[in-house]
Specification:
The chain has 445 residues and is an alpha/beta fold. The chain is built from 14 helices and 21 strands. It has an 8-stranded mixed β-sheet, sandwiched between helices. Strands 5-4-9-6 form a 4-stranded antiparallel β-sheet.
Length: 445
């Protein structure tokens, strides 16, 4: 049974998340209702790589009151109204004095911008530009009640064990307040991919899932676990911005590909983009922007971690504003992305495995296995099996696969030789395995 992502979204969306604090923990706990998460904590002040874990932030309330006593901004109305990680402040000041502490977007006059100041003490309010331009002169009252206390940064992990101890790491960030595509689409997609992979009858790799606040969370995770899991990571994927209007999914390849030494997961991403250019595309790695692949692919770690996105960060006008809501994100787009990425990861699960025909002497008898037409006539010349009229495409792929599966080739190599997509070949291979016509074996490496 799969989780109702729409209902889970509705519970998560109103929470005020940040890189630390109760909103983050409450969000992780909600995901923990659907997957067995282990919550980790790294204390404030602890050194993690070149960073120091900041103090934990919590909000009791925040309001900006106008000269006539009316409420201009109220954190309880929308948590984007308060600059994330604002220090506490109370007092009165003129509109001219207040302006440096106000944030709005002239090009998106009805949206509330998302503004943060994690590592420098600031306070401020965010509001639609149309509202800001209409503010009257006079004295304004500021009431920001927040705390910065010794606490911890939290992240959560879980694993799906496979036949191998080699790891595929799947991660997304969970630290933005009320935004949809740029916040909740990644974690919701991660949950659906977890359910997809959990349902597989077999898994070669062990799959580790990580939910963490962006940057400081992945750095804390790497600081704590790199020595134990780093040598075992054979591939991975950072999930972000999986919703929105775009039809295609895009893969940002790893640093290894950028340096012209592509890893197997880079090559598989390129295979999907080459085979289905209307459904997938490639973005080159860059350390100048992106998500936590910048940490996993930093020069010291250099993990084979790609990123997957649909409507990419910074490429939609609603980015980092209140306009990035459920209507913009669309749950069905996240569902589609997760299903496609689940298929991609299932194909990658065959990395390093060779396909071996169990009956290489002559053709195996396919008819008694329901894999070949049991009647030979002009009427079924285009049928792959009884009742399957597809111009013999499935049967032809199957026969070519059997010929190529001599114990020296992997799934992707066979698909490319045949001229089909890995995702088209995979269900045929799975059926041949279930019928004991093909077996898989470990490669020499």
């Amino acid at each position: 049974m799969t989780t109702d992502l729409s209902a889970l979204f509705d519970r998560l969306y109103p929470l005020c998340r940040s890189i630390t604090g109760p909103g983050l923990r409450e969000s992780l706990a909600m995901f923990g209702e659907h997957m067995p998460l282990e919550i980790h904590g790294v204390a404030s002040g602890e050194q993690v790589l070149d960073w120091t874990v900041p103090k934990e932030w919590a909000v009791q309330g925040a309001r900006l009151i106008g000269p006539d006593g009316s409420v201009v901004c109220d954190f309880d109305d929308h948590n984007l109204h308060l600059v994330n990680y604002s220090v506490a402040h109370s007092g009165k000041m003129s509109l001219e004095q207040l302006q440096p502490h106000l944030h709005s977007l002239p090009h998106l006059p009805d949206a509330i911008p998302y503004v943060t100041s994690y590592y420098n003490d600031r306070w401020g309010f965010c509001l639609p530009d149309r509202q800001r331009m209409a503010l009257p002169d006079g004295e304004y009252t500021i009431d920001i009640r927040t705390t910065h206390t010794d606490g911890e940064v939290n992240f959560a992990t879980t694993e799906l064990k496979g036949e191998s101890d080699d790891i595929v790491l799947i991660t997304s960030y969970l630290c933005h307040p009320s935004m949809a595509n740029n916040e909740l689409s990644g974690p919701l997609g991660l949950l659906r991919i977890y359910e997809y992979l959990k349902a597989l009858p077999r898994r070669n790799f062990t799959y580790m899932f990580l939910l963490c606040p962006e940057t400081i969370g992945s750095i804390a995770f790497l600081s704590r676990f790199d020595k134990t899991i780093g040598p075992r990571i054979k591939g991975g994927m950072v999930l972000t911005c999986l919703g929105g209007h775009r039809d295609t999914l895009s893969f940002k390849t790893s640093r290894r590909d950028w340096l012209d030494t592509p890893s197997p997961i880079d090559k598989l991403a390129q295979h999907f983009a080459d085979t289905y250019p209307d459904r997938y595309e490639i973005r080159s790695f860059t350390p100048t922007s992106g998500s936590d692949e910048r940490q996993f692919c930093s020069s010291g770690f250099n993990y084979p971690m790609i990123q997957a996105a649909r409507t990419v960060y910074g490429q939609f006008v609603e980015y980092h504003t209140s306009a990035d809501d459920k209507r913009f994100m669309r749950i069905e787009q996240v569902e589609r992305a997760a299903d496609n990425l689940g298929e991609f990861l299932e194909a990658f699960d065959y990395e390093g495995l060779l396909l071996q025909n169990r009956h290489p002497y002559g053709e195996p008898q396919l008819g008694r296995r329901g894999l070949y037409p049991t009647i030979n006539s002009p009427m079924n010349r285009n049928s792959s099996s009884d009742g399957t009229a597809d111009n013999r495409r499935t049967l032809n792929i199957l026969l070519m696969c059997l010929s190529l599966a001599d114990g020296t080739r992997e799934l992707k190599t066979i698909a490319e030789k045949i001229g089909c997509g890995v995702d088209e070949l995979l269900p045929i291979v799975k059926e041949l395995i279930s019928q004991s016509v093909i077996k898989i074996k470990k490669g020499a490496n």
